[in-house]
Amino acid sequence: MFDVVERPISLDEACRSVADASAGAVAAFAGVTRGTNHGRKVVKLEYEAYREMAVEQLEAIAERAAQRWEVIKIAVLHRVGEVPLGETSVAIAVSAVHRSEALHACRFMIDELKHVAPIWKKEYFEGGEVWIGSLADCEH
Amino acid sequence: MEVEVLYFGIVREKLSSGGETVDLPAGATVADLLEVLRARLGTDNRGAGSIRVAVNREYVDSGHVLRDRDEVAVIPPVSGG
User: Fold this and answer.
1) Mutate: best of A32, A83, A88, A134, partner B, most B CBs <10 A
2) The CATH number of the domain where B34 resides is what?
3) How far apart are alpha carbons A50 and B8 in whole angstroms?
4) Is the pLDDT of residue A140 over 50?
């Protein structure tokens, strides 16, 4: 399951969708909106996506993961729109026969997502707002 | 020829537009389109080089030749997760 949605998401939802009778392990990752960034107090976060391409990119990343590790199922859910602080912005789950493959593939999914998925985060902090990683913003 | 250009994130905000139809000469490349765009985004924009482009939802390089009715997405540095 790969999707970009404008509603709350959860690790449970991602994990349920990779359940499989042959799985001996499920590895999961949640990205959570943080209340501080570079010493700034964050007020809220907003995400925007090129939805159709983002979903295709997630599928392509999962195909690359499946070529490198023996995984059974992969799920990625990314939330867009306003995401209140402390809530899940991305949920990833990978099932595999053994833990090592599940853990490696899960790490790979989030690292690649951050490089290629056409999704953008705007941070609203006390005294301003900034598109993260973008043009005038040199922070990483 | 005409291509459908989509803007996202900071580019969408700077141009106050989610996208538009752009008229280009036949044989125009992604680089040609970006040149037009950079002028509108402001030449002092040191980050303009970090913009990527996807044509029909696939990343392409700047030499890619555009075709009539392509869907061209202007992709500023991504920050999902």
Assistant:
1) A134
2) 3.10.20.30
3) 7
4) no
